[in-house]
Write a structure and sequence with these properties.
The protein has 2 helices and 5 strands. By secondary structure, the chain is α+β, with helices and mostly antiparallel strands. Helix 1 (2-22) packs parallel to helix 2. The longest helix has 21 residues, at 2-22. The two termini are 29 Å apart.
């Protein structure tokens, strides 16, 4: 139940951050070569805006399908077989999460978010170390 609350919180934070990032100024940028005969102030925009970041919830040990349902609309996610066998994760509900990149409670600053998973019947301890 705590995982669901964390996932909902992370989803809400991510949604709000993406909404804020989508807003743009209605003031057009004026280049330095444009004459300022009308007395208009020059507007400069940052060439490298700050990345939108959210905090990764602690989903380790949880069901990958639930994580996908809770977070998929806002996050670019990849599920990788942690066993080292390279199996395709076609149905995340049949897998559990052993690790995530970024780790729990760390800021998500790069995408895709990667979940290392094993089948539900398997143990994370049996997964191949990185």
């Amino acid at each position: 139940m705590a995982v669901i609350k964390l996932l909902r919180t992370a989803l809400a934070v991510t949604f709000l951050a993406s909404v804020a990032a989508c807003g743009s100024s209605s003031v057009p940028a004026v280049s330095a070569s444009t004459p300022a005969s009308s007395g208009a102030a020059e507007t400069l925009r940052s060439a490298a805006p700050e990345p939108v970041a959210a905090v990764m919830p602690d989903v380790i040990g949880g069901n990958a399908g639930r994580a996908y349902e809770q977070m998929s609309s806002e996050l670019d996610m990849v599920f990788k077989d942690a066993s080292g066998r390279g199996r395709a994760v076609d149905d995340p509900a049949a897998w559990k999460i052993c690790d995530s990149q970024p780790g729990p409670n760390q800021q998500i600053t790069a995408y895709p978010v990667v979940f290392e998973v094993v089948e539900v019947s398997e143990s994370c301890e049996d997964a191949t170390p990185k």
